[in-house]
Amino acid sequence: MAQADPAHCTVELDVASALSLGARERQEDALATAFPQGAEVGFAILSDGMGGHAAGDLASRIIVSEIFAELTLRSNGAQLRQAGVPRLLRYAADVANDCLRDHVEANPSKSGMGGTVITTLIEDGRLHWLSIGDSLLYLFRNNELIRLNEDHSMAPQIDLMVKKGLMDPDTARRHPQRSCLTSALIGETIAAVDCPDEPLELMEGDVIVAASDGLESLTAAEITAILKKVHRRDSRGIAGALIDAVATIGDPEQDNTSVVVMKAVATEHAADPAWVAPVTMFRAAARAMSPVRQIVTRTVR
What pLDDT was estimated at residue 267? Predict the structure, then answer.
């Protein structure tokens, strides 16, 4: 993991979110952000639901809303200091997982519903995260793209076969089991959780991108090239560029794509933070959303 300069300046966060339906009939991604003006803590949650007709849509909303509620309730300074951020993030994920279990027990037809989750919490210029599943968490720093979170899918094993010469890269990228999850929130024991004890110190110019796997229609090299071109834009422009690049591919089977972009800007160079959006939750209705919906929130660290 990239390490920050200990003398990094105080930064302001410029945050934007975007959702795209892709070629699907239903939006199964959900996300929420909360970066109140002047607060020491801000957070974002993103989930990619699964479970077939209606269940994936519902699962992602349950995951996001439950974690959002827990963090809103418990992310004040005193409780964070007492419990610690990693412990709080794990607890919130467990609450969401229990809620899924309760829903399936009450509605057996929804068996198999669940989803991935990425929760990012930024406290005093430090990035904490929890990740379960195959959704993406990237750091773009000094023109280099670094994946921060673990990939809880079959993709790492398949890529290892490529490195060993047992499979060619094109076959690996199209492998039917590539997206099979090895860990997810499904109301049962969570197989793997990525939640580091130590946070990442943010530096001026850092761009953090959390995204559902719909963004993987772009290769890491293509994402890097896009960010090199647009990283000086505000977070709204960066999020829009990523969503537009996915749409340009024109994949007839394009999955839902959701992104949260968090850009660290030095306070002395930051845009006017006088306007701050309220806490926001995004959910796209099937066949009823524009290609991109965005909102920007800002807070001074």
Answer: 73
Determine how many CB atoms are found less than 10 A away from the CB of residue 201: 16
* Cα(80)–Cα(71) distance, integer angstroms: 10
Partnered with residue 201 across adjacent β-strands are 126
CB atoms within 10 A of CB 101: 15
What's the fold here for domain 11-300?
Phosphatase 2c; domain 1 (3.60.40)
Domain boundaries, the chain: 11-300
pLDDT digits (tens, 9 = 90+) for 175-220: 888 889 999 999 999 999 999 999 999 999 999 999 999 999 999 9
CA angle 186, 192, 194 (to 5 degrees): 115
18, two tokens:
């975007």
Give the pLDDT of residue 6.
43
DSSP-derived secondary structure for the chain: -----TTPPPEEEEEEEEEE-TT-SS--EEEEEE--TT-SEEEEEEEEEESSTTHHHHHHHHHHHHHHHHHHHH-SHHHHHHH-HHHHHHHHHHHHHHHHHHHHHH-GGGTT-EE-EEEEEEETTEEEEEEESS-EEEEEETTEEEE-S---BSHHHHHHHHHTTSS-HHHHHT-TTTT-BSS-BSSS--S--B--SSPEEP-TT-EEEEE-GGGGGS-HHHHHHHHHHHTTS-HHHHHHHHHHHHHHH--TTPPPEEEEEEEEEEGGGPPP----PPPEEE-PPTT-S-S-EEEEEEEE-
Contact 133, 181 (CB under 8 A): yes
Max intra-chain CA distance, the chain: 56
Question: Over the chain, what is the mean pLDDT?
Answer: 85
* Locus of tokens 């607060």: 39
Q: Per this entry, what is the length of the chain?
A: 301
Residue 89, strand partner residues: none
Q: Is the pLDDT of residue 5 over 50?
A: no
Which residues make beta-bridge pairs with 128?
121
